[in-house]
Amino acid sequence: MDFGPFLFLATLEGLVQAAVLCLTALGLSLVFGVMRVVNVAHGEFFMLGAVLAWWVTGWFGGHPALGFVVALALAPVLVGGIAWAGERMVLKRVSYDPEATIVATIGMLYIIQQTTLLTFGPDARPVEPPFYFRVQFPWFGYSGYKLCVIVAAAVLLLAAWFVITRTRLGLVMRATQFDRETAQNFGIAVDRVYAMVFAIGAGLAAAGAVLVVPVQQAHYLMGGDPLLLSFIVVIIGGLGSIRGTLVAALLIGLCDGIISVFFSPTLAKMLSTLAVALVLVFRPQGLMGARQRG
Amino acid sequence: MSRRPVNAPQSPARRRTLKTLGIAGGAAATGLAPTLFPRAYAQSEPIRIGAQFHRTGIGASYGRWYERTATAAVKLINDEGGINGRPLELVVEDDGTDPKRGAEVVEKFATQHKVDVAYGTLFSHVVIGSSPRAGELKLPYVVVSEGYHVASGALNRYVFQPGITDVRSQVISMAPWVTANLGKKVTMIFPDYAFGHDHRDYFSQAVIALGGEMLELIAIPPTESSFTRYLPRIPSDTEVLYHVMVGPGVLTFVKELGEHFGSNRPEIFGFIDSLEAVDLATPQLEFLEGTYFWEGNPRYAQPDQTEHDKFYRAAVGVDDNGASVNDPKDVSTYAHMFGCWETLFIIKQAMEACNYSGPADRGAFVEAMEALERFEEGREHPQGEKVFDARIHQSFGHQFISRVKDSRLEVVHRTAIEDGLYEAEADYTTMAL
Amino acid sequence: MGDGAKSLLLHGAILLSLFGLQFVLPEYHQLAVTRILLLAVFAMGYNLLFGYTGLLSLGHAMFFGAGMYGAGLSAYHLGWAVPSAMLLGVACGALLALLVGLVALRTTGVAFMIVTLMISQVGYLATVYFTTWTRGDEGLVMPEAARSFTLFGHTWLLTDPVTRYNLALILLAIAMAVLLWVARGRFGRALVAVRENEDRTRMLGYHTFVIKLKALLLSGAVSAAAGAAYALMFAYIGSSFTTIQYSIDPLLYTLLGGAGTVAGPVLGTFLMFYLVDYASELTNAYLLVTGIVLVVLVLFFPRGILGAIRERWLRWLP
After folding, report:
1. Is B374 exposed, middle or buried (0-12, 13-18, 19+ CB in 10 A)?
2. Contact list, B230 vs chain A (CB under 8 Å)
3. Which of A195, B287, C75, C136 could form a disulfide with C85 if both were Cys (CB 3.0 to 4.6 A apart)?
4. Complex confidence, ipTM
């Protein structure tokens, strides 16, 4: 294939990946921004979203779109609920100590993953897309559903953006992120904001997973990949910067496809991972973010 | 770990009768056994097989069917009188599809469960990681792994692969048919690790030797969950696309292949590994109509199905579409799991040949295995006859090339055993016991 | 009796009872404890950085892996004898620790965890990428020649379980001695000072970066020694040993036994190994145990078992 169409395909793939990544990484970024903790179990919330989508669509039968819409509404709520419970039972009780939280969320990672193994089983299970058509470009074909994933993710992101910037809940969240003590003095129940943020973060990951599961399959070990990618995005975008996260997700999603044109993909993954580590060392505020108040 | 209770062990007298009747006649008598012969030798110690399976991890779909197949074979063996008059017991441990755990499990088999023989698993890294421990504990380790590692001579005298042909032999036996019928300009897509590299190396070699040409070798990194962006690297003058994938992402891979090509595709030849345990009638796999697959054993019952395949299918609980009789959505790993069935009968054959009586006879068991030369097609070997090369502890059998038609696989070619033979590069029999 | 004497006595007793254990243990447990001893060395190396210096790494699998591949590849491809392969493994770990330290130690806290996690991921991918030499995930089996070696006029058979057990015990004893020396000496006090308050330590005139680098170097070398020994004793190297699971395990062992105690990681490794081994008989999801133990520890026993004992009763425990 010529370079032009190749680049076009890489761009399409990059956009799909970026769209899902935006949702997943935004969740991680929110949690880090507001609560100042790293949630290692984030990928498992993603996995739970995909698994729940499989349950729900299987339950409904009939036209796949029906079950899918219900899953898209229900899975984030359920996963958010699980995250909320985890936050109350564990994170709150270690007072959000950054290191204790990491260890605790590693524990949660195993608990969620292995409980899924016990209930859902070890197999990869497909979820039918709500609709399917193939778009034929002159050089190659492409899944129409994937193109719609981009749109759906954009809509969800706009909704999240609206909540964060235009609602009272968002205001409270931003206030807490900006200065926890002051927020508390102004009568904000910081404690409840944290639980809410943790649940929303998990819910966003689950929403991303529901969108992507018809393209991939639900599997109990699928949380690892989105976790690493989200880490990368959040670091490049600047820890805690939401705008940076979105820009970085686009950038990473697009780059990932294009880099693999030039290098062996395994080598490309090595180099990009190393580059990200160096960014975190030498520009901890991220490539685009300004240094935040911490 | 779970210990499987052994079905109705029977008397030595009955076993002798069976021998005189011939094994095939025994099947008819099976149903009567419990009433005719009381559990006379319930007191005799069972022969214990330590079964190392992937119950969890990325190999779990295979592991589940390996376990079901092995359980069915053990039941049959016990219903027909066990081995040397002793019932067979399967001691199953999960290796988590992880070499470290795999090696620990082998140690556990040898020293805690004190099994007679260890019996193994699919993923090659687990087999390779476990084999030094098996060799040093002098525990025979009979695997169903499909990889070239046993035959390559990298392992040791205690490791055998008699129940399934290795990858090297599989690919070279099919190369002539592929280049003659599908095309000579080949592009390969394979996972970027050792299993994929075996495909890459031996298939490329064979194609070039046959006057073909390898246009592009596309390696997919092990952590990948989306494949579309690799597909543009397939050159447009490709005549045959050869694909092989394993792991939880296989369905994604094949679907994306379909999206990429639509109806305008080259000939496609895939290893069924890319769709093992996946229903061919899954939406979006329609583009596979008219493409070809390697199968170790035909998943769909063929019009000329042998009585042996029919019997084996029923015993394991697989229907004519290769799915579980209890759940048509639960598709088996039919192209590989026959190896578990056949291997247990080979273990039985070797144990009977050396009159195996306990762990002290493990050396004799190894020698008895090495004395085997050929397995005839039959109920014990439903996949077909096999030739066993004792030097490299490896069997060579027939391979199947099937074409997708109406979302089923129809066998179009069966390779001869000679097509897959290669010169042995090692000799385990010269190693010390 | 002084604290120093008490601690020497205690750790001597631990080593002695581990030595005695081999005469009473059933065969399977002798094999299992050999593995445990090596994993405990890994955890002790980890503890040096985490427990004493306060740096939580999520990438120690790369040091374990450096030792494993340094020793394994030189034995496999170059035919090096076991002792030199072992030393090379340790050197590889130390060198990697130096390089990683120069970069990663510029960060602290959460950033340090993520940086080490990422670099370790690069290490995993490297073992897969250089498959010509490593055979990637499939890995390599050590050659016959590397299954025995001659040292001090004696031929040691690595295929012999008793030899393996005692070699592992010697390695553990060396690691314990290093840790005791660190814990009780000037260097150890400097490490703890960095852990408790890095800024103040710096103001007192210590070059904290160098202190941390030394700690990482030592930690990497000890972890690599465990990896090298694991490769040589069990005759297999493969990329699965460089996955994140092997970064989390030493953290878990250390937390359970007690971070910042010399014997804690040993105790933690013992308990976890048998917990998982036992759990795998009851359930497929034996890693569930790992998860639950982590959460319970963080919630109720943040200092681990020996940490809690030190707090309550034995204040002198190093």
Report:
1. exposed
2. 260, 265
3. C75
4. 0.90
